[in-house]
Design goal:
six-stranded antiparallel barrel; about 325 residues; two-stranded antiparallel sheet; 2 domains; Tumour Suppressor Smad4; 16 strands; single chain
Length: about 325
């Protein structure tokens, strides 16, 4: 990078050193070397705390930056996307976002065939094939206030949010990864209490009953490769919604493998819906918690709104070809 480069002429590389239980810090020097070898002109900024990437993205975009590479996991990408939506200088889809995945789940990258090998991921960035996907906005409650959050992959509620919360607590101790997710999935079965939910899709009552878990989103994967929204299309202007009703712990354990190929949606206890506006009310009112893109947030009541064709991302050409 040359010191006199204009912000719009270079990449902003946002690095989360804590991603992947410290993998971001360990691997960044090698990733940086690969970017230089591939003739990327860039400015690097390392995050210092949770939510820092939101402010980095917002501030740098308002100074003219329009190309961002995220070196981190799904949570880091989520923060960058929130920075993109908060800034006021450019339309959101005028900002190009690429990803080098060093997180624990890397589910957004899995959707777009982003290679886990850094050299191959940078090759995808260099080719610069882009795709404009939808984003979601959720309104939720936290400490008596209504908060907003944008997301580009998936939101989980009920049991899914509990597992995310337990996994994030382990990440803070440097013990993340798919194995930790599965461990928390198993132990969480004996902690989670079934919640009654009322769900509206596009202002129509579609569900009122006891729910074990619920996933809503734009892309297909979460939890390190679980296909919880197998029919999701990231640019159709609609959320996909999967609701798992009350069921036995034994049946959940027996069908865990079916989460990875999406076939679990054929079970009698599973219902699926599609819509652009979804409202979730729990009974009792504050009893269902929320995570988006793996990040634990607040609790119900919840309102989800689709933002069609609003985020421009770099993808593997294999995704564009449907491979």
């Amino acid at each position: 990078m040359k010191e006199n480069d204009k912000p719009e002429e270079r990449w902003l590389v946002i690095v989360n050193p804590h991603a992947g239980s410290g993998k971001g810090r360990k691997d960044w020097p090698g990733i940086r070397k690969l970017l230089i070898e591939k003739k990327f002109r860039f400015k690097e900024v390392l995050t210092k705390a949770r939510f820092h990437a939101i402010n980095i993205a917002k501030d740098q975009i308002e100074k003219g930056c329009r190309k961002i590479i995220v070196v981190g996991g799904d949570g880091t990408l989520n923060e960058v996307v929130n920075g993109v939506f908060i800034q006021k200088k450019y339309p959101t889809k005028d900002i190009t976002i690429g990803m080098i995945t060093v997180g624990t789940g890397n589910d957004w990258g899995r959707m777009y065939r982003i290679p886990f090998k850094y050299k191959k991921a940078i090759k995808v960035l260099k080719k610069g094939k882009t795709f404009v996907q939808d984003a979601g906005k959720v309104r939720y409650q936290l400490n008596g206030n209504t908060e907003n959050r944008y997301f580009v992959n998936m939101a989980g509620m009920g049991f899914d949010a509990l597992v995310a919360q337990k996994t994030n607590a382990l990440k803070e101790k440097g013990r993340g990864g798919t194995t930790a997710y599965l461990y928390n999935l198993m132990t969480g079965l004996f902690q989670y209490k079934i919640t009654r939910l009322k769900i509206d899709v596009d202002n129509k009552d579609v569900f009122d009953g006891d729910v074990f878990s619920m996933s809503l989103g734009i892309c297909k994967y979460n939890g390190g490769g679980m296909m919880q929204l197998p029919d999701a299309i990231p640019d159709d202007g609609l959320f996909d919604l999967t609701v798992i009703r009350k069921t036995s712990k034994f049946k959940i354990i027996r069908n865990i493998k079916n989460l990875y190929d999406g076939s679990f949606v054929k079970l009698d206890e599973v219902s699926t819906f599609r819509g652009s506006y979804i409202r979730v009310v729990s009974i009792p009112e504050k009893s269902v918690f929320l995570e988006t893109d793996g990040e634990s947030l607040g609790h119900s009541p919840l309102e989800f709104e689709i933002i069609p064709s609003s985020v421009k991302v770099i993808v593997n050409k294999k995704f564009l070809k449907g491979e």
